[in-house]
Recover the amino acids of this structure.
């Protein structure tokens, strides 16, 4: 529910809010919502209940050999593939955000306004 | 047995690696124009050569040498999976990437010759976009598709923003904002499909969906809807046709040619992925056909009312994307009569092959038209049609070469786009898609009218009385691009089977016969 809410808030901000910075924030919400969805998917897919990081604390809590603890860990850990996707998406999201913010700054310098209707409004398309 | 050290299968990732490598190096040496020109020229020659060097025999490349893993899921599902990122190279990819590489190389050649001092940053962005388009065409991993889709969006926006004009920034920002929505939706589609299947490899998903009996999970339908949404954005189909045509029109002429070619590659590649994953669901074919038909009609209608040549071509690119999309949507169950009383169904491989062939033709023809717009921009400083006249009096060579591309895109025989449009229209009528077939004919006539008007106004309208026709200098690089396009147009118009047969073989490899 949290992930879906974030995605919806992001979509509404990008499509309907008339402020460029709020649109950029909407992009962040959207990206974070999708990332959260992927994280929850990691637990749902394998039926895992713990984060897939093998810690010393887990090993000690098992009170058994390393191989037995590792086997127990793999049966309890979530599916780790979605975390790799989230990591990649964070990097892509940061790069995209940088470009959008750069363009927003340029538009603000030209128009002295952050209102999307002023800055992105229809004009003569071909200069 | 001793394995060969080097097989030409290893060249598959070079389609992506070479442009990235050249992009990074040329960006590093951005101040040394001569060196950048040499590097980019070598990179482009290698890119054009790659389709001829790469093997088609088992053209499947898995990164990191990850082996196929046997992992039994259950009866009627799948038994083996690819764990690494994979690229698939069949005849379909070969044909599309060949056309794309040729037109991208020629367009970059125009930029190198046209601009005395080339910008390393500008070439970096174009090369990154080219690399992403190659990756999107080859990729067999759905998350990797998303990654390159996103990078492609940033690179395309950057190409337009590089012009450093208010309008260019505005278009780039709008494109990026919409791109963030489309990219987010594509990643959600990836998540839904991963949640439904547990894998990211497209061929593995295809195998699972082909053999599974239960395929109607709501998550899969969500994945389908979101992927179609991302496809419309990447390909410039409605509701994104306006921003896409604005993007083409805003870019410099040669960049516009590359951008529209990228859209065509995305249209075909992502379209094939959607059909492969969701072929079993009727709503896939219907959604693709409705969206594509709308693009075709609206593109032709908008082209008729344009006064600017670049915008006219941009809308024609949208119209032609619609035709390609209709071809892709023909991959569906079609009723077939085997004998006097025997009926059955067959999959519409043929229609899809014609759609891809049309995409192949369009990459060439529309790129040539964008280059002709670049010539006008170079000569007149604008592309407003009412203010341009008498080109045929000033440069007959340029007028004739442009006329060929205009006739080709209008579907005039015996040129290449006529062959593909004719085959698509025939396929539509033969298989009961009467309305779509009629709309295809009508839109072709509308495009012909729009281009004929443009040619009469700009090329044939005589100069005002008393004005001496000054010779119009056109750089040889631009004339060369137009000449190569005309050779392609005539050759594939006379021998369409040379492209259609490999495409059909590639589709058989992708869809298992």
């Amino acid at each position: 529910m949290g992930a879906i809410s974030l995605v919806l808030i992001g979509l509404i901000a990008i499509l309907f809010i008339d402020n460029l910075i709020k649109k950029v924030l909407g992009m962040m919400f959207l990206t974070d919502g999708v990332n959260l969805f992927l994280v929850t998917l990691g637990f749902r897919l394998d039926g895992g209940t713990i984060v897939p990081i093998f810690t010393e604390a887990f090993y000690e809590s098992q009170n058994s050999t390393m191989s037995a603890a590792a086997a127990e860990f793999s049966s309890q850990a979530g599916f780790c593939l979605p975390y790799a996707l989230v990591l990649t998406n964070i990097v892509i999201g940061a790069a995209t955000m940088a470009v959008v913010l750069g363009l927003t700054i340029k538009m603000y310098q030209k128009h002295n306004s952050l209102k999307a209707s002023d800055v992105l409004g229809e004009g003569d398309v071909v200069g | 047995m001793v394995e060969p050290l080097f097989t030409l299968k290893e060249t598959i990732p070079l389609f992506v690696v070479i442009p990235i490598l050249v992009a990074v190096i040329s960006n590093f040496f951005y101040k040394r124009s001569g060196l950048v020109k040499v590097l980019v020229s070598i990179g482009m020659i290698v890119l054009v050569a790659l389709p001829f060097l790469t093997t088609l025999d088992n053209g499947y490349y898995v990164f990191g040498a990850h082996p196929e893993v046997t992992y039994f899921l259950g009866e009627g599902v799948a038994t083996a999976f690819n764990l690494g990122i994979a690229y698939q190279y069949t005849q379909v990819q070969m044909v599309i990437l060949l056309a794309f590489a040729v037109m991208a190389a020629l367009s970059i050649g125009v930029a190198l010759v046209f601009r005395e001092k080339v910008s390393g940053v500008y070439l970096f962005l174009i090369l990154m976009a080219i690399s992403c388009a190659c990756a999107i065409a080859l990729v067999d991993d759905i998350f990797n598709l998303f990654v390159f889709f996103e990078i492609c969006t940033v690179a395309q926006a950057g190409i337009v923003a590089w012009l450093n004009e208010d309008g260019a920034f505005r278009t780039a920002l709008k494109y990026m904002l919409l791109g963030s929505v489309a990219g987010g939706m594509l990643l959600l589609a990836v998540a839904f499909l991963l949640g439904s299947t547990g894998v990211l490899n497209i061929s593995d998903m295809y195998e699972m969906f082909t053999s599974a009996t239960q395929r109607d999970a709501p998550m899969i339908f969500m994945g389908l809807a979101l992927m179609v949404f991302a496809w419309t954005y990447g390909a410039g189909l409605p509701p994104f046709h306006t921003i896409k045509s604005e993007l083409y029109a805003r870019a410099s002429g040669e960049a516009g040619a590359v951008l529209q070619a990228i859209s065509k590659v995305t249209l075909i590649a992502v379209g094939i992925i959607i059909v492969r994953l969701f072929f079993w669901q009727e709503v896939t074919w219907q959604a693709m056909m409705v969206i594509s038909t709308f693009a075709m009609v609206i593109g032709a209608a908008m082209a008729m009312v344009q006064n600017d040549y670049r915008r006219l071509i941009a809308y024609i690119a949208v119209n032609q994307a619609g035709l390609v999309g209709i071809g892709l949507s023909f991959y569906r169950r079609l009723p077939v009569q085997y004998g006097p009383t025997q009926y059955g169904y067959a999959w519409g491989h043929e229609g899809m092959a014609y759609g891809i062939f049309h995409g192949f033709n369009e990459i060439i023809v529309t790129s040539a038209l964008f280059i002709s717009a670049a010539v006008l921009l170079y000569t007149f400083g604008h592309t407003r049609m009412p203010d341009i006249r008498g080109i045929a009096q000033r440069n007959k060579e340029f007028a004739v070469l442009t006329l060929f591309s205009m006739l080709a895109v209008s579907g005039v025989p015996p040129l290449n786009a006529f062959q593909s449009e004719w085959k698509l229209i025939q396929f539509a009528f033969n298989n009961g898609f009467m309305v779509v077939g009629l709309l295809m004919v009508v839109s072709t006539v509308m495009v012909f009218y729009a281009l004929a008007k443009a040619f009469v106004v700009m090329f044939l309208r005589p100069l005002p009385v008393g004005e001496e026709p000054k010779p119009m200098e056109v750089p040889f690089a631009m004339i060369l691009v137009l000449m190569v396009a005309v050779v392609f147009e005539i050759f594939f118009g006379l021998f369409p089977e040379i492209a259609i047969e490999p495409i059909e073989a590639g589709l058989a490899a992708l869809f298992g016969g």
Observations:
- Chain B has 19 helices and six strands.
- The interface with chain A takes residues 143, 147, 150-151, 153-154, 157-158, 161, 165-167, 169-174, 176-177, 179-181, 183-184, 187-188, 190-191, 194-195, 198, 200, 246, 249-250, 308, 310-311, 383-384 of chain B (CB under 8 Å).
- The first strand of chain B starts at residue 60 and ends at 62.
